Amino acid sequence: MAESGSESTLTVVLAGAVNLAIAIMKAIAGVLTGSGALLSEAAHSVADTFTEILLLTALRRSGKPADFAHPFGYGKERYFWSLLAAVSIFASGSMFAFYEGFSTVFGERTEQTKPIVGYVVLALAFVLESVSWLQAMRQVRGESRAQNRSISAYLRMVDDPAPKSVFFEDSAALIGLVLAFLGLLLHQLTGSSLYDGVASILIGVLLALVAWSLGLTNLRLLIGSQADPVVVRGIRELLAAAPEIEAVVDLQTMLLGTDLILVCARVDFDDTLHAADVERACVRLAGELQEAYSDVHEVFIEPVPRTDPDLRAAVLARYGDIATRYGHAD
């Protein structure tokens, strides 16, 4: 858990430093060349820089220990600040790119000057962005392998938005640089600024898609997503295998933050057990769950009768047909 946080911090800091340097170069090149696409890319890098600041804030604040006001800790703050980062990409980067693109396409024709400066800056930016992208890819690949998942499956299920945000940003940055290069080149070859404007609009669309994807990820996590289905299945099997438990009636999990899982289980204990036996079983099972799954942070086990009609109805209403398939309401 600590190692993952350190890796995320390195990924974010490296991306932020790279984006700041690139933003300055692109802005200067955009002014010198008169390229709307380059100015859009400068806004893109500025937005990415703000994004990294927000992600660093997320990493720092989400690590605060639990207190009286927040007994489950501050883990979900990571999702809030990461959501603001997604909004920043759209508001600062995408909107400016759209403005620059439509102004170039429908406004007065602009003359291109010193295109060689733009090519040099784009080449340097591509190299620097590649360094940041490789670090993000290294983290994503390493964590996906550790979870025995493909990269695409890992990115769908990830509970740490930082590496996904940087990976998506850097991937969009590399694509955006190619679009800016094509806009600059076609403007030079044809003498028409239309291509430069179209490149800016495409960069705006690209950033909007990235912002939307990251926003949906953080929305899912903020409203209380369940834990990894593989972990949930393992928790259910561990509880069901306990000699004191006759049936797992209901199992609910929620991500309290990155690598922090809340487990709430309703189980039907053997009716021959005494109260003290149930208490000891609850304590033992909580320890076994935390030992088997390091991400399990809090465990609540409630003894209930599996035949209770109201409870059964509530479980079936929540899970539907899946309830019977996975034994939620046996």
From TrEMBL:
Chief subcellular location: membrane
Superkingdom as given in the UniProt entry: Bacteria
Pfam families: Cation_efflux
NCBIfam families to which the protein is assigned, alphabetical: CDF
GO cellular component term of the entry, any: membrane
Protein's membrane topology: Multi-pass membrane protein
Subcellular location: Membrane
Signal peptide start and end residues: none
GO biological process: zinc ion transport
Gene3D superfamilies: Cation efflux protein transmembrane domain
Protein name per its UniProtKB record: Cation diffusion facilitator family transporter
GO MF terms held by the record: monoatomic cation transmembrane transporter activity
Transmembrane portions of the chain: 12-32, 79-99, 119-136, 166-186, 198-216
Organism from which the protein derives: Amycolatopsis pithecellobii
Keywords from the UniProt entry: Membrane, Transmembrane, Transmembrane helix, Transport
